[in-house]
Amino acid sequence: MKKLIALLVVCTMMTGAFASCGDDKQNESSAEKSISEAETKATESDTEEETTEKETSTEKTTREKTTEEKTTTEKTTEETTTTQTTTEKTTTKSATTNKTTTTETTTKSADDDESEESILGMWYIEDDDLTMGFDFKDKSNLSMWIDITDVVHFSGNDFIIDGDVLNPDSISYDGTTFSINVDGQDLWTMTKESGSTDSYDGEYKMVSGIMYDSVALYEGVDVYVIVKGDTMLADYRNALTYSVDEDKIAIIGLDTIDFNEKETLDTTYEIKDGTLTIKDFDEDGDCIMKRFDITTFKSENDNKITEENIIGAWRLSDDKYGLRFNENGTGNLFVDSTEMLQFADDGNFIISNTYFEPEEINYDGTTFSIDIDDTDMLTMTRNGDSNPDSFNGKYTIKSGAYYDGMIDSIGDSFGIESEDVVVYLIVDGEKTFVEFAGVFIYSVEKGSLVFEGLENIGISDGSLVPCKMSENGIILTGDNKEKRTFEKTDLQ
Questions:
Q1: How confident is the model at residue 273 (pLDDT cuts 50, 70, 90)?
Q2: For residue 63, what pLDDT is reported?
Q3: pLDDT value of position 33
Q4: CB neighbourhood size of 47 (10 A)
Q5: How would residue 226 be classed by pLDDT, with cut points 50, 70 and 90?
């Protein structure tokens, strides 16, 4: 029951995310959100009347223009005017000048035959926190959807809530009506309106239950659930209408669902290379969306961290350190040390602006050492196969004055006692990285991570760290709620 209550809280939070195309905003009060059904109908009626008047006026003007052009053409050349579905061409040939003038007028509609230029269909907003978008269903109806797979979805015959399988005894499904009932309490009831009765896939209309009450926050707006495999979308319908004219678009009803203070958004749009851009969508600027296909869509559930996909080295974007996750549940921290340690193209080895020439370096393909006046400056051994022809590779640092000084200082900045851990030096061309092995431990719990040993980078011991896998890498949320993206690297 606790999981179900947690889901209600999450669902309520998800509706707040609708306030923008990816940026969190404060929701207005319930009174400000609620718009009466009579006002909505009146708005729709007024819009229909205006559209009808515009269409009637346009048709009248077109008929008058065509008649006039046709008369002129018949008098001048006795040729006929050819009319096509989307293009009108009128050719007039002057008897005295023998010149031909062609006038072409093209009108683009929502259901244009060119699919790349048509706004019809589903679009999604690219955002690391949330997957949502719009569905331009026909010439005027527009719905808003959100991917809720990360919270609730089907997996085969199981119903998953926050990673846990719901007791099958709580579920009832007869091919049309799906319901969840716990201890005699209606938690979720929805009826299927399309799709086979032999599977869960299809479109459902939510009709009752505690979960329904938590997400049905907008008066006159129907909540649908779209199921395809393990992907589940919540679709808000009958809230929005739209119209397009050339590159102009008008969206009516955004104020009803807290997207925009204006009842009607009049702006321009552009579709290019499968990307829809609605200009000046809200106070944050343009809304940019990609085409959406639920059959090939990678849902939020697929973006979860697992014990398999976490393995490897991940470097923090725009910074000089990263984390390596090992298969045994331990982790390494590596730091870009190029400014302190560098192998130059001319064969010199540079440590803290001190140049060591090739003859001062002892290297047999396995052991690398620098001794100055019988003083061990740095000694390390190469991991893996011996290679006397190249410095590139991974080394285990053994000893030396620079190890005791410089390496210690790097470790101290991250709260690491370098003498207590194995320290590696990774050489990749002119770049180097110092890596401290086994400085933290981690575990994967239901798509999140639990760490010990990373307090110095803002992650408390034992805390559940929200994270997800994205196209850009792993996104971790630290103690200060700041999101950090770690990109996968092939660092050996």
A1: confident
A2: 40
A3: 34
A4: 17
A5: very high
- Tokens matching residue 186: 């209606």
Q: Which two tokens stand for residue 207?
A: 């009709």
Which pLDDT band, with edges at 50, 70 and 90, does 300 fall under?
A: low
Better-scored residue on pLDDT, 27 or 453: 453
Q: Which of 76-90, 112-126, 465-479 has the highest mean pLDDT?
A: 465-479
Cross-strand pairs, 412: none
**Confidence band of 198 (pLDDT split at 50, 70, 90):** confident
pLDDT band at 355 (very low <50, low <70, confident <90, very high): confident
Give the integer Cα–Cα distance in Å for 51 and 464.
54
